Amino acid sequence: MATEEELFASVDALLEEEPHLPPPPERARLREAAGITQARLAAAMKTSTQSVKNWENGRSEPKEPRLSAYRRLLDGWATKHPAHGAPATSVPAPATAPQPEVPATPIGPAAPEAPGTETAAATAPVVAAVPAVVEPPTGRPAVEWRPATSKAAAPAADPRFPHGPLAVLDGDGCAYGADGIVLDCPARTVPELVEWTLKESGLGAPKLHRNGKDSDPLIVLTAAAAVKLGLPERLEGHEQRRSLRLPADHPVVKQVAKAKWQLTQRGFGPWARIYRKAQAGQRQCVQLAVLSWDALDERSWPGVADMEPADIARVLSVYATRVITPRGSTAVSGLELMTALRPPTRAVQDRATGNWVSGYNPGSLGTDPMDPAPPEATAEHPVVINSGWTGGFLNEEAYQWVRDVDLLSDEECTLPHAVGLDLNTAFLAAAARLVVGLSAPDHFHAPAFNPKIPGSWLVDLSHIELDPRLPSPFTPDGTRPTGPAWYQTHTVAYAQELGYNVHPLEAYLRRESGAYLDPWHDRLKTAYVDTLADLGVTKDMDDRQFLAAMECHKQTDPAMAAVLAAIKATVKGGVGKLRERPQGKSYKQGERWPALERPTWRPDIRAAVISKARVNMHRKLSNMARMTGLFPLAVLSDCVVYPSPGESPLDFLPYAASGKPQPGGFRLGPTPGLAKLEGVQTMLWAVGLMEQGLNPARHIKGGDAVLDEGE
To answer: Is the pTM higher than 0.90?
Structure first.
């Protein structure tokens, strides 16, 4: 049983808490009874009309000093305009028999004082005495007051971040967050915004791995919000547009520096990261994204920049929850996700001192950048320039192949249709259980081939002769190799799988290896499948239902369709970032560029993903030819075009007598590696493009497709 001292301490704690407000409907009733408009109240409270609306519909709560002022105003109105049948007091009393107190949980709890801390106001429910039934003064039927409820009031997974991972700030000071929540942001400068975000907003996301770091909160600025904070609506002048950042003498950049905040080397651009050194183990960092500076690329986030702030917040919050809080382009986010799921360090105990220190995390890429082997590098890499390397390079790229028109049969030409199939996130499927090197490459001469060792092999595969109606699995353009060339392990292993002996001349191999991309694959696969399910495309559908659902899935919910597009862009862009090339006109060949300084600049891992994806594609093409006698017209990355007697893939895909798809060929479905319909055209159209040397797979969907190699 609690002692008297404990009870008094608890009561004193309640008395010291911030003042709490009556339920949202009562706030609106009191204002209307006083004859005050929302606009007039907003002017008196020095805030926006939208903020007042949010207070009265329960979507947000005012912060101090507005909280005390608003409570004082409501208490005064309650004295003058009590609920019907209640005495004129600041606390409404029941009209008849006493009613039990009803707990009312505020929608916008007080934010933690600093990231990683909790306050009682952010987690504890508030108890307020309210009447169970209040009869409005207008003579309308009595309405039962209930605690304000909303998705935003649901308990957060991490109490340190009650308002989700991010918010979209509009020019009126409303910050739209996850699940429809709206926060009142009083900031008028960028430094004030950073302080509010870290101390009051309750934004952020927990780490994805126990050895990782929490995600920094993200504030997305609309054009109006950017202007209000002193930023240009658009980057102005040739120099700003070229560098994609504000100049160092811009007033906002000076404000940030004067407030003792720092910018990363990227400066203040579309994605600006503002930080101070961590204190007491707590990060002090806020990520900003400026919509009017094209922070959300239309190709990766179709239609999102033109949405209302609340809808933008919904799209980005779903992406942040399922993938990662955006930290730049989807390509950057894809790369950041790899590191977040495989942190480079972990806490280890120093045997000599007994202290806990930072140490290498097994299975990760570590903290130091690693130079590639010369054949794995690009032509401008210092490893190549400084060594005078002339031995050739890996050419593991996605397919760009068109069958020779002379190899079309009369039967194929008489088929009425050309049907395109697209593999769902083919690179993601290739990343599953993919063993890659974790250590530096070692050079070997005339080694015996081992398919379990990741690396690059110099092998002559020109003697392998395959059906010319299929692309060669050893080159991106599908032509037969003409002599020794460098190949990634999966390509050489496939030659062995086809029954040919391989005798490497040289190799750069890695002694330590692991499935580095497995957690990355698992998280993105789940995100992809779950988002498709939100669009009405589920794994339990049969093939006909799947094709029907895919025809209209983008119209089901444009916001979720944008999330799906961003997830796919994250996969392809993340793989491409593993071999980011130098950018900018000032770059000189042989110099190191910034991307080389990160551990995730790993062209060998990119080559492994693409090699496996291309081998997977060739294996399906071969199985299709064996099972159906059909050969492709063209292949572009993960899209393949087949001649077909009908307009549907069901007209040519192989099915068993039971109606189930035959294993080994192309199968329809919503998971990575399975296929969907890309487009349908006439066979005459496809042959016409082939005669011009064009790739039907590029255009089968309609319009001009962009070559997609994962860059």
So the answer is: no
